[in-house]
Structures are given as structure tokens and as C-alpha cells.
Amino acid sequence: MRFFEDIEIGWRREVGSFTFTADGIKKFASQFDPQRFHLDEEEGRKSLFGGLAASGWHVASVCMKLMVADGRRQIKEAAARGEKIAIWGPSPGFRELRWIRPVLSGDTVSFASEVESSRSSEKRPEWGILQVRNTGTNQRGELVFSFLATAFAPRRNAGS
Amino acid sequence: MTLTFEDFPPGHFGTFGPRRVTREEILAFAAEFDPQPMHLDEEAAKRSMLKGLSGSGWHLCSIMMRMMVDGFIGRTASLGSPGVNEMRWLAPLRPGDDLTLDVEVEEARISRSRPETGLVTFKCSARNAAGQALAEMVSPIIVARRAAGQAG
């Protein structure tokens, strides 16, 4: 992960892809979102989604999973270059989350992150605050998912 | 009876829960979807900004969704949601927390593109047993209107 000072507006990462299976969709839905169109193929076909659709929270959680894995890759790469490692802080929330198109069983979604804006934190001078647009695109190139996350990135010289 | 658009006038809708969140659930969700040390490792969590083991914010979102489904969406003519206007993670979710969900209807309007449906915007707040607000979410849900001629 990068330090706040090293992050430019527009910095983009492809964070990875994930294929949603019928079993995975039903497993997540039965635990967290047991609505009929997330649990049964026929009910999904009859719904606005037109097929067995992943819960929107499943799509969001998979996006997080891939972002954490990508963060680990970045940490490894930085360590291999002998650089000081930046660990980002917890997020205070997000805005503008849109489930733009359904994610149906068999769909593969590729996620990307792009920094939209940044500012320093008045309350926490050792951190900078970023607005990061995270998106998901399916195998047909259609945008299916988007949200604007707020993130804390550490400053390079915090504590010095 | 199935709830329809007409059953969601603006104002307080209901309070749901409590729902206990166990350490095992927190660790299982984090291992699958958010394997950051602050959600998985007691020692690393103590040193983090959250000062102790905490559940993933996405886990809290997912539990809030389940509480809404159990509370009312399961018996509502819901057609899904286009998204979340805003989600604020206000305080960490801790192992053993008993969550209560307060649900308010912020706005209810008939859809222009699909007039047989309406868009109901909910504001949902999750709090722990001490009354501390953990998260606040504003999200619309598409709900079918009562069919013409159907008894109120």
C-alpha cells in the first residue's frame, strides 16, 4: 500500500476478478439476504433480475475480499523493494453505492479502484483522507457495481 | 399479509432485534471476505485504530440486511434495491454485541419509470446493548404498489 504523499488523483488499480457460482450466491443469501430471487433460479428468472442474482452485499463483500488481497500484494512488492510499508486505516464509510446491473450465477466481475480526491485530516494529522471509487465490470464489459469509499492512508512522516 | 408501498409512510417504521453477533461469526466472515489483522487477530487489533477485535464493516452491513429481511422485507413485495446513498461506520462491532435496528422511512415516492412500483428510502441505524450507534445506512428499496381494486 502507498503512503498518502505518494498517491495521485486518478491512481488506479485493477484489484482482481471473481466468478459468482449458484452455490456461492445461495450460501451468502441464506446467511444474510434470504430473499427468494437470491435463493432460487426460477424465482430469480421471474424477478426484475432475470436470473439467480447475487445479493448486493455479496458483491460488495467480494469486492472487499479482492481489495484486501490486492493490498497484500502491494505490501509484498513494497517489502521486496525494501520500502517502508504503509498500512491503511479503517474506513468511516461510503457513499453512492449503486447496484447498476444484476450479478447472475456464472457472471465474472472484475473490480477496480481509482482515487477521486484526497485531503488531510484535521483531527488526525498522521493520516490523510482519500475518496476512492471502486467499480465492478462483468464479462460483457458492463458496469454492474460502483461505490465511493472513504479511506485513511498514513502519512509518510507521521510520528517523526 | 404482504406489505406493499402503501404500508411505508414517512416516519418511524419499527425496531428489530436484538441479534447477538458472536466472535466465531466475526472471524468466519473476516476470514472469507475481509482478512485484515484488525478483524482476525486479537493482538494486531489492540494496536489498530479500533483498539480491539472488531467485525468487518461489510459484515455489519450484511447483518443489518438480514435483520431487515427478518424484520419486514421478508413479508414485503420487495423487488430489490438500486443501492445505498450513504453508509456510516460510526463505532466498531465487537464480539458478543447484541444489535438492535431502528428503521425509519425517510421518503416514499411512486416510480416514474415503473408506476406499478414505488421507491421507499429507509434510514436504518444499528446500535449495541449500551445504546451506542454502530452504523447508519440510507438506502432505497423498490416496493410493489397494491394492485388496483385490491382491498386495503
Describe the structure.
The complex is a heterodimer of chains A (160) and B (152). Chain A has 160 residues and is α+β, with helices and mostly antiparallel strands. Chain A has one domain (4-154): Thiol Ester Dehydrase, Chain A (Roll). In chain A, 29% of the residues lie in helices and 32% in strands. Chain A has four helices and five strands, in the order βααααββββ. Chain A has helices spanning 22-32, 36-39, 41-46, 56-80, and strands at 12-19, 93-99, 108-120, 127-137, 143-154. In chain A, strands 1-3-4-5-2 form a five-stranded antiparallel β-sheet, with helices on one face. In chain A, β3 and β4 (127-137) form a beta hairpin. Chain A is elongated and about 55 Å long. The mean pLDDT of chain A is 94. Chain B is an alpha+beta fold and 152 residues long. Chain B has one domain (5-144): Hotdog Thioesterase (Thiol Ester Dehydrase, Chain A). Chain B has a five-stranded antiparallel β-sheet with strand order 1-3-4-5-2. The N and C termini of chain B lie close together (11 Å). The model of chain B has no long low-confidence stretch (mean pLDDT 94). The chains are: A alpha+beta (160), B alpha+beta (152). The interface between A and B is medium-sized, with 32 and 38 residues.
